[in-house]
Design goal:
about 150 residues, Aminopeptidase, 5 strands, globular
């Protein structure tokens, strides 16, 4: 469903988008991680026919970044056939509830489907009500795997 009130163009991230990606993530997460995003941008924009990675951005008519989504297709981890993974999704706070996240998610799903993925997954903090609500609204539900973890002292 696309109920956006603004025109948004979805495209592949460009090196010049890095500062806006870092700023948007910092605004939403409270933590600036420029090195992380630089490395991710470099890794996800490298040409490699064996690795299917996607870093898409949404821009307004005046070329302002209003959101981004990052994902990849992973195969045979934990015995799982190839499936898509959403690694990150962010929309500017003042543009939320306008369908931009859905547009980004749909664009990512379309790219992954072209590559043969039939399932998409993500991980969300159990107390992150905003992202849980968004992904549930996009049709995601608990999958067949359970995350396990242990603190390393």
């Amino acid at each position: 469903m696309n109920n956006t009130n603004i025109a948004v163009d979805i495209g592949v991230v460009q090196p010049g988008d890095l500062d806006a990606v870092v700023a948007l993530d910092a605004a939403n997460s409270g933590s600036a991680k420029p090195g992380y995003w630089q490395e991710l941008l470099e890794r996800f924009t490298q040409e490699n026919p064996r690795i299917r990675r996607y870093f898409l951005v949404g821009k307004s008519a005046d070329d302002e970044l209003v959101g981004f989504i990052v994902g990849e297709i992973r195969a045979w981890e934990f015995g799982s056939p190839p499936c898509g993974w959403v690694i990150a999704l962010n929309v500017t706070a003042d543009q939320r509830q306008q369908g931009i996240g859905t547009m980004l998610f749909d664009a990512l799903c379309a790219e992954m489907k072209k590559e043969g993925a039939t399932t998409i997954r993500t991980m969300v903090l159990s107390n992150d009500k905003v992202n849980l609500s968004f992904f549930r609204g996009e049709g995601l539900s608990a999958g067949p795997y359970i995350e396990l973890e242990r603190q390393l002292d």
